[in-house]
Amino acid sequence: MTTAILSALPEEQSSLVQHLSHPQRLMHAGRAFWLGELHGRAVVLALSGIGKVAAATTATALIERFGVARIVFTGVAGGVGDGVNVGDVVVAQDYLQHDMDASPLFPRWEVPGYARSRLACDGVLSALLLEAAYACVSSASGQFGLRTGAADVLEGVLHRTHHGLVASGDRFVSAADESHRLRNTLRDAGHDVLAVEMEGAAVAQVCYDYSIPFAAVRTISDRADDTAHVDFPLFVQTVASRYAEHIMLAFLQKL
Ligand code: ADE
At 29, which CATH number? Predict the structure, then answer.
């Protein structure tokens, strides 16, 4: 049973590649796939690319070409829920596409042909990710020796692990008014979104089509507000890869 670990960012992938036993790099569909073992588990590491289409292509290749039995996503997201702050970790319970709108033919946010707007993540994998994330977050400041740039903000702050709805769309949300509008419109319709990103819902849909278990963990890099474009790259450079490495290695040991 091979586990695919899909990373959003090269920084996250490279720290996991360094831990691979018997690493083998294969090119397929213009993408690099790393095969090997982590903690004795067969894995394929891949980059999702940015946006829903790129992520769906990578997920489909992982299933069709590499025969993976499950896909786990690790990446960053913009926090939009109350109290979902930079340095927190969100484990997705389910996914929605915030830019899906085939109304009036279908209700807003419903994925045509699926009779639903939200696609659930696998409960067992998500529970293991939550355990790994709790352990990582509780030791984060000390363990990672956060020192520079955006990371200064994180020192001494108590970070939280959240579990709930994540929304994906082909848009980097970088204005407070847009983020509030997005969050409030969805909340009024009963969808309480914790965070936004650009790939997860697409991977969830591919995994749903193939009946493959899927789970995702996202570290909060910004608040999807007017400083998101500054906070995002700083966080990615300083913190994101260490979170990804620690959470994924802890997760694989529990698998
Ligand atoms: N990923 C990380 N931050 C994000 C944001 N603000 N919008 C969309 N995707 C993100």
Answer: 3.40.50.1580
Is residue 106 within 6 Å of ligand 1 at its C-beta? Answer: no
* Burial class (CB within 10 angstroms; exposed 0-12, middle 13-18, buried 19+) of 155: middle
Question: Can you give the pTM of this predicted structure?
Answer: 0.93
Local structure of 191: helix, strand or coil: coil
Domains in the chain, number: 1
Closest CA to 195 of 175, 176, 207, 179: 179
Cα–ligand 1 centroid distance for 21 (angstroms): 32
- The verdict on whether 152 is a catalytic residue reads no
The minimum-distance atom of ligand 1 relative to the CA of 169 is 8
Q: What range defines the domain where residue 244 resides?
A: 3-254
| Tens-digit pLDDT profile for residues 57-115 | 999 999 999 999 999 999 999 999 999 999 999 999 999 999 999 999 999 999 999 99
- Nearest Cα neighbor of 19 from 255, 254, 253 is 253
The residue nearest atom 9 of ligand 1, judged by CA position, is 197
User: How does pLDDT run across 13-23, given as a tens digit for each residue?
Assistant: 888 999 999 99
- Number of helical H runs and strand E runs in the chain: 9, 10
Ligand 1 near 248 CB (within 6 A): no
